[in-house]
Amino acid sequence: MVRPSLAILLVLAHAVFGTAYRWFNWQYEVTCESDAYIAPDDEEAVAKFLHEQFVEGSHIKVVGNGHGFGNLTQCVDQTLTKKQSYIVSLTNLKELHIHKNNMTVTFGAGWDVNDLAEELKANDLSFNSLGVERVQNFVGAASTGTHGSGSSMGNIASQIIGLRVLDSQGNLRVINEKNNAEELKAFRISLGALGLITEMTIKVIPTYRVKKTTKVLNATSDYSKMYSQIAELYKEHDRMTVWGPHFDWNAETQDWDLEATYFLSYWEPTDYAGASNCTLNYCANGCGDCKKEYICYDEVIDSVSCPPQGVCNREFYAEIEHFLPIEYYAEAATNYTLFQQSQTPRMKAPYNQQMVIQHRTLKGDDTYMSPVNTYNLDPKLSGVFAIIEIDWIQEYDNFTTLWQNQELAFEFLPQFGETYNVRPHWNKMSPANATYTQEKFPKLPEFLAIQQRQDPKCQFVNEFLVSQLGIARCARYLS
Ligand SMILES: Cc1cc2nc3c(=O)[nH]c(=O)nc-3n(C[C@H](O)[C@H](O)[C@H](O)COP(=O)(O)OP(=O)(O)OC[C@H]3O[C@@H](n4cnc5c(N)ncnc54)[C@H](O)[C@@H]3O)c2cc1C
To answer: Which UniProt keywords are listed (predicted)?
Structure first.
């Protein structure tokens, strides 16, 4: 007897009972009402579901863990369409194969970064690169270009050497370095627009120990001087993150007070064989005793990234993260800080607490939609990018303050984008418009040609994708 899959049962249940599923991102400000949440058991069930929904032209939004600050994962709301609209999670695809002979790992789309990190560690392996937190689903993180810090290190998508993806008709395509290397450049960061990725293969490396050094630095309101000094430090340290300057909200003066000190951490390989102790003081997310000088040693994953138990900062954030050629860094960081200060008088909402500016670096790459793609870079530049992040942190989860700060966050790109060749993180604050995207991502036409092949009926798009990528043929995706 053929057993109907869970996905099919859910669709039938919806037809009979009119069920609905409300999707939220991690901080509940991105939401939509779908007809159902579908979590198929395996790749075959995903393909079957897609094949059936293609006939109907249903809207389908594949999601990871919803750890984004923008509308990338928003489904088509039920109220906007007569078609069915589904949230699809591939969380049940949990196969894993470690190939130590060629140092690769192949895994299903259900693996979260933290679980995969633990699995690699247990096998004396490590990622080439990793973000600061591990809360994401791996495919979800890779699909937006999630990254850590390192001038000779790529984002986490750069480790992908192959993947399996289903198009909107449920057809499987196997993409890899050997057979379709050029297409892989489109699929490494696909923003959920090119189909449902069911499996990935990444390059891994033998694990190694690193020494993490944290230093406290004095802040100064001479920002040009401070950021020029930081730029010099990036020449000394390949893998470094600067946490600061920090500003505290002063309710009396209605202004941001610059904290006297900030700190940075840098990482370097070591042969030290003593105790592993970096996880005793995470500091990756504001946890622990961060502003102090210390040295710790650990396995690389545990030294550069933070497991869920090390994440303590869960207020509503507004956040921007902008990538720009490192040569422009000191001037850009100065002007970002001055622009923020010029906007402070409009920050009237009551629950501001702290503002942190962070600085990282990343090696450029050739992935079509990578924020550090080098396609429009002046050849005289190094191909290394600086990353400027600003976090606006609140006293508590207050929507008014969040929206106020997000409105401000959106203004940095129009202000500085053209001047410094800035590209925003896809899942933080979004790019300004399709014209800007085309300029900063010269391979966008090639990406959209593949998108047309993979999704001819525009079932995978949402407002974010249509407007930010300028997918003209999908402009009427709601009709
Ligand atoms: C607290 C916090 C900390 C963060 N830290 C960092 C950091 O250190 N560095 C950094 O660069 N970013 C960071 N980010 C951003 C985060 O890494 C990205 O937003 C990431 O994309 C989120 O992953 P997710 O699994 O939650 O994916 P989601 O937000 O759910 O999805 C992201 C994209 O992937 C697509 N997708 C998901 N699964 C599939 C699939 N199977 N097939 C095809 N497409 C798929 C979705 O459609 C969507 O377009 C952070 C975000 C938060 C909220």
So the answer is: Oxidoreductase, Signal
- Element (DSSP H or E) covering residue 418: helix 412-420
- For ligand 1, is residue 454 a contact (CB within 6 Å)? no
CA torsion 448→322→311→239, rounded to 10°? 110
386 Cα–ligand 1 center, Å: 20
Identify the structural domains of the chain with CATH numbers, from first to last: 96-206 (3.30.465.10), 209-432 (3.40.462.10)
Beta-bridged to residue 213, according to DSSP, are 266, 295
pLDDT digits (tens, 9 = 90+) for 5-26: 555 555 555 544 457 999 999 8
Cβ–Cβ < 8 Å for 64, 466: no
Question: What's the DSSP call for residue 228?
Answer: H
SS3 state of residue 316: coil
Give 304's contacts (C-beta < 8 A, 6+ positions apart): 130, 132, 148, 210, 212, 239, 267
Distance of CA 296 to the CA centre of its chain: 27
Report CA(164)–ligand 1 centroid distance (Å): 19
* C-beta 73 within 6 A of ligand 1: yes
- Counting from 1 in the atom list of ligand 1, the atom nearest the Cα of 72 is 49
pLDDT digit string, tens, across residues 213-225: 999 999 999 999 9
Tell me if 50 CB under 6 Å of ligand 1: no
Distance in angstroms (rounded) separating the CA atoms of residues 256 and 245: 11
Pocket lining: 290 vs ligand 1, CB cutoff 6 Å: no
